[in-house]
Amino acid sequence: MKKVLVTGISGFVGQHCAAELLKKGYAVRGSVRTLSKTDEVVNGIKKEIDPKGNLEFCELDLMNDSGWDKAMEGCDYVLHVASPFVVKVPKDENELIKPAVDGTLRALKAAKKAGVKRLVLTSSTVAMHGGQTGLIKLNQDSWTNLNSKNVTAYFKSKTLAEKSAWEFIKNQTGENKLELVVINPGPIYGPTLTGNLATEAMDFFKKLITGQVPMLPRAYSVMSDVRDVATIHVAALENEKANGKRFIVTTEKPQAIQVIGKILKSNGYDKVSTKLAPTFLLKFIANFNDEMKGMLPFVGNTIEADVSDTMKTFNWKPIPFEKTVLDTAKSVETSLKK
User: What's the number of domains the chain is made of?
Assistant: First the structure.
């Protein structure tokens, strides 16, 4: 049985990746920052599949060398999902950038040393569209403009982490070359396995269905379902055509934030607002609200993406967006009742 190290297994994406791996017959070693989180992870994964002894844990820190070599022992593949994330813009951007870049390099170096065949890295479409405005069309060659004044710390962290990964792969020496595949999802929605609502998407849905969002931003963007993101991560491990490529995993067409409100409203979520906020008002609020400042790169823009290569390579079709929205809302609602 092939073994996969999943970094950040307690996170929203990490849990789904682990469940998908177990369904596909892999053994999983998941990294957490503290082993006290493991019960929550196991209980979440059991909603999808019983691990039956094929799930183990280790402690890893993105900012610490300790444990990385041992974590890689006996692993054929790595899903490096772990990355720092905060909803609010940090005062010091290195709070996000340093762990993202250093953690990625730690994972790559340890994987290379251990003779791992392939590492699949979780990046983001924010590594692709930062610094652009208006109609933005993304493809596998798109990169965020780090010199733009509108690029947030989170955009920089994902961009620099991915760039450092490709640089490492290009410069590696020796016969056993580590392979790299990068997955670039958009904003990620979908059901949570653990009931944890700490992600940006879950927090937004929680506020939305409880009537705490009076107006919605005028923004159109491709979005992602966490189940699609997990499916492609796992499919990318052994697909020969995937090596050395970036794959966008999003809806085929951009979706308006307002459409989320309309879908929910028409399905009985009465407290949801569908009113649009004037863009000038959101820009003004961003001057003293860090959460809104983090959303500004999406406001007033339309972000499209070409997912044709992802669909062709993996014989994949995105989950319908309405299903994603309703499944997310149902999951949040269930968690709030606990």
Answer: 1
